[in-house]
């Protein structure tokens, strides 16, 4: 099968080599590899890149959005968590008066931010 290197594919499609690597990391395309490990882009990958660009332009979404949509189709737990969040309504915690709810939420956020700031960065 005839195939293009990443630089040739970038030149042909208008995506930069860096963006092609990002698209691959997001799982949106999966180019074949040569025996020495070079990415090889065939007609199928070129078509996917063209239609991906069309999808992004037509629906005004980002590559990250499309990558997230892909994760949603593959990860049942993530899909359920997002569905639950989208369908949930805000609910005032028990024991918090209606007039105190805003203050309660502000303080909760401030505590979480302070906790995040004091935790050591992940290596």
What does this structure look like?
This protein has 123 residues and is mainly alpha-helical. It has 2 domains: 6-61, Multidrug-efflux Transporter Regulator, Chain: A, Domain 2 (Orthogonal Bundle), CATH 1.10.1660; 85-117. It has helices at residues 6-13, 17-25, 43-59, 63-74, 76-87, 101-118; strands at residues 32-33, 39-40. The chain has a two-stranded antiparallel sheet. The mean pLDDT is 94.
At CATH's second level, what is the architecture of the largest domain?
Answer: Orthogonal Bundle
- Main sheet: which strands, in order across? 1-2
Domain tally: 2
Structural class: mainly alpha
Radius of gyration of CA atoms, rounded to a whole number: 22 Å
List the total number of helices. 6
Helix content: 55-70%
Largest sheet: 2 strands, antiparallel
